[in-house]
Each structure stands twice: as structure tokens, then as C-alpha cells.
Design a protein that fits this description.
Elements (H helix, E strand, L loop, with lengths): L22 E10 L3 H10 L5 E4 L16 E2 L8 H11 L6 H20 L27 E2 L5 H13 L5 E4 L2 E10 L5 E10 L5 E11 L20 H9 L3 E2 L4 E8 L11 H5 L3 E3 L19 H15 L4 E4 L5 H7 L1 H9 L9 E10 L2 E3 L11 E3 L4 E2 L12 H22 L22 H18 L6 H24 L4 H22 L17 H4 L4 E2 L4
The structure holds flavin-adenine dinucleotide and succinic acid.
Flavin-adenine dinucleotide binds next to α1, α4, β6, α5 and α10.
């Protein structure tokens, strides 16, 4: 819960960054995040009330914007709901919630249709232009992935933002980073969410957005790890905020490492889509040998956790710094036509993938856990709904099936809408006195940047080294020790100094790291994306359930 604090005494620093009172805005629906979950919800919610979307940076900046492969949904007569459900369950290592998976898969085609109706230009089949071209990725028994070339997410963001411009009662506030949820007691021990505090990065002040219903759609947390395919916004803010407010969080140990990120030392690892393997590219050791046939009958198209682990194992045993992704079986012409973005991005980095193999390594990519929701988007906090990567709906279990994530976001944002509309009728603004919501802290641009950047890098390195693809009790204990020490420093700094967006993110990164480690320590077995060498086997007797953490624990 965001506890209003005593205002910090005015200092020289305070004056630099527009301190003063918290400005207050009221709305029916507050949406935190402008990825596919937040935007698709906003587009529908505005038919029932006013919507404010706050988003950390530019309106398009999100994990969604970088999605390559596409959206998995049953599209033709060679496929069936049953097959898509089975593939999802098979990937999920026994931990998927069957009911949630059924909703995901059965509502999938409608979700794709809605995106298409909003103007998303999915690539069409060359020979049958009345159909969408379907890609294939790891763990899928059929071609069922609709896409917009190899830049699906960018096209989704473009279309949804374009559509949103037509809605007069939706306001999108860019460069607004939510700090904490605003909550109040709701009777019978429940907590109710009445909005969120945010920093306006440009003006510098703190604002309170008071809402009847809040949708948390703030995405994932790849930035908790040193090497990630996620952009800088992915610092797990929503998971940390919800946890602090009392939300139940689950399955944080299941961090998905994408097997094939381009091997380069870059701020955000450039992804080489699994669809490249779907078209025939082959993984090889540096000495040219193939290896995936030793790990799984599906070879290079095995589920993602297995491929990432195999690469990690091969690299550790050989001492090599990467493996090769050999695209020659696809052929130069098809590579250029099917993967124009990947071809161009690699070329810009001096690599011609039509004639050279791609050096690849695994990289942190997706969090399968998050804030627990039911299949209608409810969290355990009244009037706080959630959708997209920030959630744990139960569909991914211990390992997400490729391209089920954009699908999950659009399907469950739609389910959350129905709940949101019901809540709107039930909860009025009159119950909330907005004047009481002052954050009690001021902002400053003048802060200890070295402390923040150093601690951020140390946390990311700790997580990479000790809480990566292969874990052990010793490594987890080591990580817990370091993260605890960093968290204490961060909390002290948070309490004693003026606020700024970087400190907000650092605090959240530390919080999410702690949750990942805690869940990993609770799961004393190896399953899906969580592999612990001290418990090398799956233990269905004891651990066929999610790992749930709550603040009061
Ligand atoms: P996001 O799209 O990440 O949006 C989150 C939003 O919340 C952003 O606008 C962010 O700025 C905002 N936000 C975060 N914190 C705050 C805060 N404190 N205050 C205000 N705003 C905040 N999945 C697939 O299904 N298919 C794919 O092909 C695919 N390819 C991928 C490729 C890459 C490189 C990556 C990184 C991911 C890929 N994924 C793919 C995963 C998928 O893109 C994401 O899981 C999905 O887009 C999440 O959508 P979302 O709306 O939940 O979150
Ligand atoms: C990819 O294109 O390989 C990413 C797909 C995903 O993360 O689902």
C-alpha cells in the first residue's frame, strides 16, 4: 500500500524539479501501460467511461513493440483447439491452469480478428491471399502463428495507437511513470485500489490518478537480468507495485530465456526470432556439429526451455561463447523475404545472414509468473485488474509456448473489460476523497546517479550469474544475500532522498529480484524454466502447484 509520507523538508535539491503538492486527476478507468494489453483494453473500455492511460516513455515503447514471431491462434482446418491446448499444456510442464488455457485458445481467433479489425495488417499467404500467412515456432505441432512480417509487435502498436486517436474520451499520458498504487480499506479485510501515483518525467511533479477501476498492464521484467531481449521499460514495476499493495504474486521462478539472442554486447539483446528455426535454420556448435537431436525429438524446434538449456550446456562444456544459428537451409531469397527486419538489423551490425551463420546466446526474455488473476482479470485487490505479461493467469505454467503471450494479453484484457464494466456500476467516485491523496515526497533531478546505476548493474549481474538457466541452492542463497543487502541500501535511499524515476525503477528491480529468488527457493524441484541442480527431478507429489508469495508472508 502506498503510505502517504510526511513531506520531506524543502532542500536546495527540491526546488530543481517542481516539487509542491500532488496534482490530482480523476477518471473512470486508469490503465497503466500502453502495450497490447493496455491499449486493447482502453479501446474497448472507452465505450463505458473515460479512460486515462499512463505510460512510462513514448506511447509505443513496450515489449509489444519488439515482438517478432507473431500471435499463436488456431486459423485453419489442419489445426484444432485441442492441438493448441495440448501444445500449451505440454510446454507448461504440468503447471498450466486448464480452464485458463481453454479460454486463451478458444478466444484466440476472435482476438486476432479484433486486432485485424482495428487495422493490424497481418501478412497474407502468397498463394491464398484470403488467408493469413502462418508461421511456426518451438513447441507448436502446427503452423498457427499470424504475423506482420517479422515485426508483428510494431505493427500492433501502430494500429492500436492509431485507433485510439479516434477516441475522444481516452487520454494517453506519455513519460508518466507510476510509482505506487493508491489503496484504501474496503471493508471485511479487503483492500481497494483507487488509482496510482505517478511522476511526470517532463514536468517533474508527482500526480495522483484517482480511478474507479485500474488496469495494471505494465508488462514484464527482463531488465532484472544483465542480458535481456527486453527494452529498458521492462523493470517489473507493476509486479512490484502490486506486491507492495498486497496483491498475490506467483510463479516468479519461471523466467524464460530465449534461446537465440544475437551474440553482441548491447544494451538490449537483439532477438533472432524462433520463427527462423521454424523455417528450417539449424543450431550448431562452433565446430559445426549439430546437437539438438540429442536433447529432444523436435530438435531445434523443441520447447524453448529445452533449447535454451541445451545451448547453455553446450556452451559450458565446450567453453564457447556462443553457438551458431545456420540459416542456409532456408535459402537467401526466402530469408530476405520472410525476415526483412532481422536481415536488415544484422546487416547494420555487419552480419549478412543470407551467407553467414548467426552467433547466438540465450537471453532473459519473458516472465511466466506475476500478479495472480482469475480468468476475468481480477486480482485479490478490489478494483485492481491486470492483463498481459504482468499477470499470472495460469496459462503458461512452468514454461510459455512461443507466441502465446501477445495472445494472452489481448484475450485476457478482453475478459478484464467485462469485470471492469461491472465494477464501474458498483463503485462510485463519491466514496473517494481525492484531497487525501498526497504522496508526501518530492522529486528531484539532482540525485546520486552513480549509486543508482552501480546498484542496478550489480543486481542485474547477480541475477544473471546466480539465478539464471541453471540454479543451485548455493547460488540462490548467494543471490538472496546480495539482493537483501542492495535492497536495504535502496530502501534507505528511497526514504531519505527526493524521488526520481531511476530510483523508482531501481527499487522495483530489487523487489522483483527478491520475488524471483523467493519463489525459486520455495520450489525444491526442477520443472520447466526452473532448474536446480540440487533437486534435478520433477516432484509432482509436492510441487504440482504454483508458488505463491504475498507481502504479509
Ligand atoms: P508491454 O508490451 O511490455 O507493455 C507494458 C507497458 O507498460 C509499456 O508501455 C511500459 O512503458 C508501461 N509501463 C511499465 N512500467 C510502467 C510504470 N511504472 N508506469 C507507467 N507505465 C509503465 N510474444 C509473443 O506472443 N509473440 C512474439 O512474437 C513475441 N516476440 C517478442 C520479442 C521480443 C524482443 C520481446 C521482448 C518479447 C516478445 N514477446 C512475444 C513477448 C511479448 O511481446 C510480451 O509479453 C507482450 O508484448 C506483453 O504485452 P503487455 O501489454 O503485457 O506489456
Ligand atoms: C520470437 O519471435 O522468437 C519470440 C516469440 C515469443 O516470445 O513468443
Amino acid at each position: 500500500m502506498a503510505v502517504p509520507r510526511k513531506p520531506a523538508g524543502e532542500t536546495r535539491r527540491d526546488r530543481k524539479y517542481n516539487p509542491g503538492k500532488t496534482n490530482i486527476f480523476q477518471t473512470d478507468f486508469l490503465v497503466i501501460g500502453s502495450g497490447i494489453a493496455g491499449l486493447s483494453f482502453a479501446l474497448k473500455a472507452c465505450a463505458f467511461g473515460d479512460v486515462i492511460v499512463i505510460t512510462k516513455k513514448e506511447n509505443y515503447e513496450s515489449n509489444t513493440n519488439y515482438a517478432q514471431g507473431g500471435i499463436a491462434a488456431v486459423q485453419d482446418e489442419n489445426d484444432s483447439f485441442e492441438l493448441h491446448i495440448n501444445d500449451t499444456l505440454e510446454c507448461g510442464g504440468g503447471l498450466c491452469d486448464l480452464k485458463a488455457v481453454e479460454v486463451l485458445v478458444k478466444d484466440g481467433p476472435q482476438g486476432v480478428k479484433e486486432l485485424h479489425n482495428w487495422g493490424v495488417r497481418f501478412t497474407r499467404d502468397k498463394e491464398h491471399p484470403e488467408r493469413f500467412s502462418l508461421g511456426r515456432e518451438g513447441g507448436h505441432s502446427r503452423r498457427r502463428i499470424v504475423r506482420a512480417d517479422d515485426l508483428t509487435g510494431r505493427e500492433v502498436e501502430r494500429a492500436l495507437l492509431e485507433e485510439l486517436k479516434k477516441k475522444p474520451n481516452v487520454m494517453v499520458f506519455e513519460n508518466h511513470i507510476a510509482i505506487d498504487l493508491i489503496t484504501k480499506p474496503a471493508g471485511s479485510g479487503q483492500t481497494r485500489c483507487v488509482g496510482a501515483f505517478a511522476i511526470d518525467r517532463q514536468a517533474g511533479g508527482i500526480k495522483a490518478y484517482i480511478s474507479r477501476v485500474t488496469l495494471l498492464a505494465s508488462g514484464g521484467c527482463g531488465q532484472v537480468y544483465l542480458h535481456t531481449t527486453n527494452p529498458a521499460i521492462a523493470t517489473g514495476d507493476g509486479i512490484a507495485m502490486a506486491y507492495r499493495a498486497g496483491a498475490r504474486v506467483a510463479n516468479m521462478e519461471f523466467i524464460q530465456f530465449h534461446p537465440t539472442a544475437l551474440y553482441r554486447n548491447e544494451e538490449r539483446a537483439f532477438l533472432i526470432s524462433e520463427a527462423v528455426r521454424g523455417e528450417g535454420a539449424i543450431l550448431r556448435r562452433i565446430n559445426g556439429e549439430t546437437f539438438m537431436e540429442r536433447y529432444h525429438t523436435m530438435g531445434c524446434l523443441a520447447p524453448r526451455d529445452i533449447v535454451a538449456r541445451a545451448i547453455d550446456h553446450e556452451m559450458k562444456t565446450s567453453g564457447d561463447k556462443h553457438v551458431w544459428l545456420d540459416c542456409s537451409p532456408i535459402g537467401a531469397e526466402k530469408i530476405r523475404e520472410r525476415f526483412p527486419n532481422i536481415t536488415a538489423e544484422c546487416l547494420a551490425r555487419g552480419l549478412d545472414i543470407t551467407s553467414e551463420p548467426i552467433p547466438v546466446v540465450p537471453s532473459a526474455h519473458y516472465v511466466c509468473g506475476g500478479v495472480i488473476t482469475d480468468i476475468e482479470g481480477r486480482t485479490n485487490i478490489e478494483a485492481l485488474l491486470a492483463a498481459g505479461e504482468v499477470t499470472c493467469t495460469g496459462v503458461h505454467g512452468a514454461n510459455r509456448l512461443a507466441s502465446n503471450s501477445l495472445l494472452e494479453a489481448v484475450v485476457f484484457a478482453n475478459s478484464a473489460l467485462k469485470t471492469a464494466v461491472e465494477l464501474l456500476e458498483k463503485l462510485s467516485h463519491d466514496e473517494i476523497d481525492p484531497r487525501q491523496y498526497q504522496y508526501g515526497k518530492v522529486c528531484s533531478t539532482d540525485y546520486d546517479g552513480v549509486f543508482i546505476s552501480h546498484t542496478r548493474e550489480m543486481i542485474r549481474l547477480t541475477m544473471w550469474d546466480y539465478v539464471g538457466i541453471m540454479r543451485s541452492n548455493k547460488r540462490l542463497a548467494e543471490a538472496r544475500k546480495w539482493i537483501k543487502a542492495f535492497s536495504e541500501e535502496i530502501e534507505a535511499s528511497y526514504l531519505s532522498s527526493p524521488l526520481n524515476p531511476e530510483l523508482v525503477e531501481l527499487r522495483n528491480i530489487a523487489q522483483v529480484a527478491e520475488l524471483i529468488i523467493r519463489c525459486a527457493l520455495l520450489r525444491k524441484e526442477s520443472r520447466g524454466l526452473h532448474q536446480n541442480s540440487d533437486y534435478p527431478n520433477r516432484n509432482d507429489k509436492k510441487f504440482l502447484r504454483p508458488t505463491v508469495v504475498e507481502r504479509k508472508n
